[in-house]
C-alpha cells in the first residue's frame, strides 16, 4: 500500500463542480407524459463526458431516461443532441468544457422516440432511398480479376466526403431543414456530391438534377451555413453544396 | 401480437449481416434484417485500420498470396483455427475487397514512385512500381509477413459499412431498425425465427423465418474496459446459447488490443504501429524490441498486449491518477501522414485526451477488443446442433481465428463470411429449409419470454440491473483478463454465479410503455452473465496457454492435451454452462503446429505433429505448383460456394510469370 | 426513372436560383457604386453636380436628359421587384415555420444564421424603403443635384428614410454579396474554410466603410439642405461649370 502511494505522482485536482442538467423529458408512448424539463445534479469527475454523465444519471436518478449511444468514440453518429441549444455529439463532449448549467434536448427535425432519443435512422434511410446514394454502374458478378485502377488522389477525395456519419447535426443546425422537412439537407447533398465525383458512378448531371434540381434539393439551400459550422467531422459542406449548385445550375439550363 | 414471416431472418445490421442479406436476396429469396441501431451505426464502423486480403499490389506486399495469408492467420490463431475455414477465408478475401471496390469503397491506392515511410523507427524510402499505380494499396499490420492490410485512411470500417449498407438499400433489403431479438424460436431442433422486442414501442413481436442468421458481433461489454461499442453485449450469442441446443465455441478466447486509449479504452488503430508508431515506457524507452527482437511492436496482438502488461508489472509503467499506462508515439510519422491517414486517431486524441498526437505521446493500455469465440458453426456457417441457425462475423465461431485474431482479419471475416454464409443459407432455402413450427410451440416460447419480462416487476425484487452489470464487468476485467490464474478464475466463476442468481431478482421500477431502458438492462444483464460464465468457466477449464488465453499457472501451449475447441452449452433448466470439447485433427492440417515466429518458443507438442510435418514437408519439396500442393495437403475448394472458387488474379503473379 | 413533377418546368428552380443571385449581385454592386456617386457631395457641390450631369448623359449628348435617370431607376426597381419576388420563396411562409425558425435561431447562437435572418428583415424593409426612394426618382428625375437633393433630404424631410435605408441596404447588400459568393463557391481559395473567414472579414470591413461613408454623405446633404432651407427649390449653378465641362471633354479626347 505504502509503496503504491509513494509512487503516485501528485496530480492537480480541480475542485469538482456540481453540474445541473436540465434534460428534456417526454415519452410519446405514455399518454400521461407531457413534454417538460427535469433537472438532475451530478458531481463532475475528471475527463467526464456527456456519455458518462448521462449513464450515471440514468443508473442512479432516472432509470427511464432515454438516450442513444453506440460507439461512444465520436465515429458512429448516434448521440447527436442539442447541448445548450447547439447540435453536437454528446459522447465526445467533455463536461469540463460546459458551464455548470447544461440543457440537453433531442435533435430537432427528427421523429422523437423519447427524451433525448430521436429516429435519425429512419430519416437517413428515407434520404438514401430518395437520392439513391449508391454507386450506379453495370453489374459485375465475378471478382477474380484485378480491380479497376483509380487515381490515388481521387480515392482520397472521395473518402474526404464519405466521412459523413449521418449524425443529423447538419439538419438540426440548418434553418431551411427546420422550416422545410422535405429539404434533403447538407447530408444528402454532400452524399450525392460524393457519388458525383466517383468515376465508378455513371449517373449523368441530368439524372442528378432530377433528384436535387429543385427547392427540396440544392436550390432549397439558403446558405445559412449551420451545416458547415456544426458538422462534427468538419466536412467541407458549404463547398460541396456550392459544387452541386454550380453543376445543377448548369444542368438546369442545358 | 404482430407476426412477420420471411425467408431469411438476419439478426444484426453490421457488415456481416448486410452482406449475408445481399447474398440471400441475390439468390431470389427475401431476407429481413433486424438491427439494434440504424445499420450505419453498427460497430463495424469502428474498424479503423483495414482489411486483410492478399492482393500484393504494393512493393511491400509484392509476392503475397493466399498461402502467406493463410500461414499468418494460422500462426496468429496459435493453431486453434479451423484450417479449412481459414483457407476458404483467405481465398475469398481478395474477391471481397474487389467487390467492395466495385460497390464504392474508396480504397487507398498505390502511388507510383518513391515514398517516405517509417519502419522500425527509421525513415526509409519505398519505391512503388509503375504498373501498380492506381491499384489497391496496403499497410503493415501485426503478425503478417507482408503488407496486406487494405485500407481507407483510418476509416476503413466506416467506408465499408456505408458502402455495404447503401448496397443493401439499393437492393431493396428491408431493415427493421431498433429491434432486439431476445429469444430464438425453435421446434424439433430447427430454428424458425425469433421473438423480438421493439426498442421504440417496447412491444413484443414474432418473426418467423425458414433460416435465421445471427450476425450481432462480439460481447466485449461483459468487460469493464473494452474498445467495443456499448451495443456489443453479445445478446445474439446469448439467445443462441439459451436455446440449449446451439453451442458456443472457444468462449475463453478473448482478445485484448494493445492500444486502447487510457483510461477510456477507446481504440486507436493498429495502423498506428503498422505505419511505424512505437510503444514507449515511463522513461520513453522503446521496450518492445527487448521482448520481441524480430516483430517488435508488430507481433500479434495477444503477444504485444502481454508484453505491455508485463512491462508495467516490472515497474516501467507511467503513473497517473487512474492507474498505470504506457505511451504510443506516432509523432515520428509526421503531421502530413497523421492528418491524412490517421485522422480519426487525431480526433479521438483531441476530443477525449485533449492532446495533439502529432506533438504529444498517447497514453495507452491494452483493453478488451474482440471475441474469437461465439456461436459454433460448421464451415457453411450453420450450427451443427440447431439446424436453420446460421451465424456470421464476430458472433460466430466459424473458427478462422482460433485463439487469437490478426488485426485486419475481422472486417475481412465479416464480409467474406457474409458472402459465403449468404450462399449457404440460400442453398438451404432451396433444398431443405421449411417453416414448420407449431403455433403451440410459438405460444409457449412467447409466454416464457413474457413471463421473464414480467418477473422483473415482482414486488419482492430488490436488485439494480446496472449495479449487477457493473459488478460483472469488474469481475471479468480483474479476473478473466490478459493474464489468468486458476485461483482467480475459480473466484470469478463463483462471483459470476452469485451475480447470476441476483440477476433473477432485478427490480424494474418503471412500468411505462415504450422502450424502458431499465427493463432492457434487466434482461440483458442475465444474458450477459450467462456469457461471462461461459468465458470464465472455459478459461478455468483450459489448463494451457494458447493465443490470447494465457494461464500463468499453465504457461505453455499444450497441443498434446488441448488441441481442441471448447464447446459450451446451457440447458434451459441449468444454473451453469456445460462444457465439452471438439478435437482438432493434426493429421489433416495443412500447417501442422509449430512456433508462431513470435511469443514463447516452448510448448508441449502433439504426438501426431512430427508425422504430419514430415508429410507436409514431403509435399512441399515436390515440384508441383502451389495450388496443386495445397490441394494435396488439404483440399478446400469443394467447400466453397461455386461462385467463389475461381483463382484470384494478381499483378505480381502476372508480371513474374 | 425518378419521379418528375409534370406541373412545373424542371428548369425553373435552376433558373430562379441563378436569377436571384444575379439580380442580387447587380443590386449590391449598384448600391456600392451609387454610394460612391452620391458621396461626391463630400468633395464639394461642384463634384456632385458634375456626377449628376454625367448620369443625365450630358458628356455624350451635350445636354442633360433626366429621363435617363428615370429609365435607369425603373430598371433598378424592376430588378428589386424580381429579386424580392425570388427571395420571397425563401421566407418563412406559415406561422409554424416562423415559430420553428425562431426557436431554432434562439438556441443555436450561430452568426451566419442570424445574418440570414437580418437579411429577411432588411429585405422586407427594403420593399418599402427602396420603393419609395426609387418611385421618387422615377417621377422627379430632374430633382437631383447638390441643392435639389439636399432640399429633398432636409426640407423634404427625407433624411429619416435615407438614414434607415442606408443601414438596411448596406447590411442587406453586404451580407447578401458574402452569401452569394459562399453559395456558389466563388473566391473561396484553396481551403474553403479559410476562404470563408477571409470573406467574412472583407464583408465587415466593406460594410463598415460604406456605413461610415454613407453617414458622412447623408450628414453633408443634411448640412447643405439645412443651410439652403430658406431658398429651397433653387437649383445649383456650378461656379466653374464650363471649365469642368471642357475638362471632362478634354479627357474624352
Automatic annotation (TrEMBL), chain A:
GO terms for biological process: respiratory electron transport chain; tricarboxylic acid cycle. It catalyses: a menaquinone + succinate = a menaquinol + fumarate. Residues 155-184 form the 4Fe-4S ferredoxin-type domain. InterPro entries: 2Fe-2S_ferredoxin-like_sf (IPR036010), 2Fe-2S_ferredoxin-type (IPR001041), 2Fe2S_fd_BS (IPR006058), 4Fe4S_Fe-S-bd (IPR017896), 4Fe4S_Fe_S_CS (IPR017900), Beta-grasp_dom_sf (IPR012675), Helical_ferredxn (IPR009051), SDH/FRD_Iron-Sulfur (IPR050573). It comes from the Bacteria. Pfam families: Fer2_3, Fer4_8. Its EC number is 1.3.5.1. PROSITE patterns: 2FE2S_FER_1, 2FE2S_FER_2, 4FE4S_FER_1, 4FE4S_FER_2. Keywords: 2Fe-2S, 3Fe-4S, 4Fe-4S, Iron, Iron-sulfur, Metal-binding, Oxidoreductase, Tricarboxylic acid cycle, Ubiquinone. Binds 1 [3Fe-4S] cluster. Binds 1 [2Fe-2S] cluster. Its cofactor is [3Fe-4S] cluster; [2Fe-2S] cluster; [4Fe-4S] cluster. SUPFAM superfamilies: 2Fe-2S ferredoxin-like (SSF54292), alpha-helical ferredoxin (SSF46548). Belongs to the succinate dehydrogenase/fumarate reductase iron-sulfur protein family. Part of an enzyme complex containing three subunits: a flavoprotein (frdA), an iron-sulfur protein (frdB), and diheme cytochrome b (frdC). This is Fumarate reductase iron-sulfur subunit. It comes from Alteromonas alba.
UniProtKB/TrEMBL annotation, chain B:
Residues 7-411 form the FAD-dependent oxidoreductase 2 FAD-binding domain. This is succinate dehydrogenase. It is found in: Cell inner membrane. It comes from Alteromonas alba. It is a peripheral membrane protein. The active site is at residue 301. Its EC number is 1.3.5.1. GO terms for molecular function: electron transfer activity; flavin adenine dinucleotide binding; succinate dehydrogenase (quinone) activity. InterPro entries: FAD-dep_OxRdtase_2_FAD-bd, FAD/NAD-bd_sf, FRD_SDH_FAD_BS, Fum_R/Succ_DH_flav-like_C_sf, Fum_Rdtase/Succ_DH_flav-like_C, SdhA/FrdA/AprA, Succ_DH/fumarate_Rdtase_cat_sf, Succ_Dhase_FrdA_Gneg. Residues 470-598 form the Fumarate reductase/succinate dehydrogenase flavoprotein-like C-terminal domain.
